[in-house]
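Section 3.1: Structural characterization of target chains.
Under the original work plan, the team committed to producing a structural model for every single-chain target entering the pipeline before any wet-lab resources were allocated. The record below documents one such target. The sequence was received from the expression subgroup and is listed exactly as submitted; it comprises 158 residues.
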Amino acid sequence: MWCSSCGQTSSNHSPRLNRPTGRPPVLLTQIDHVAIAVHDLEAAIDYHRRAFGAEVHHREVVERDGVDEALLRIGESYLQLTTGTRPDSAITTFLAKRGEGIHHIGYRVEDCAEALAAIVAAGGRAIDLEPRPGSRGTTVAFVHPKGSFGTLIELVQE
């Protein structure tokens, strides 16, 4: 059987362990979430419920980051609706400068520290110098958009 991840023939192997030399391992396992910054979280939740039938799967205030978030499950991923809870939060600042819209994309990884080190080694710019606790009991780290082609990236380890 041909493996599209690593280009080898094998019936049972891990693409991360059996990649041809010279190629980095595949660290991203899937899209964890797409985050949308909103001014009115309740209105955004209501809109997604009425328009798409989406229901809140998880709701949490993350005090450390000054955000209130609602996660709507879409397949194996989430749509994260988020708003700031205090004037100095990154979401509040984003909303003031750019208005509502896509804030970041969350990539699910098996090992947040390994993925963060790989991004920095590839020239990316870490916002979080080491992984930290995130919502849902995850471990996360953010990567600055200036080092990732204009997109704020959140690495998410479950």
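Residues 28-157 form a domain with the 2,3-Dihydroxybiphenyl 1,2-Dioxygenase; domain 1 fold (CATH 3.10.180.10).
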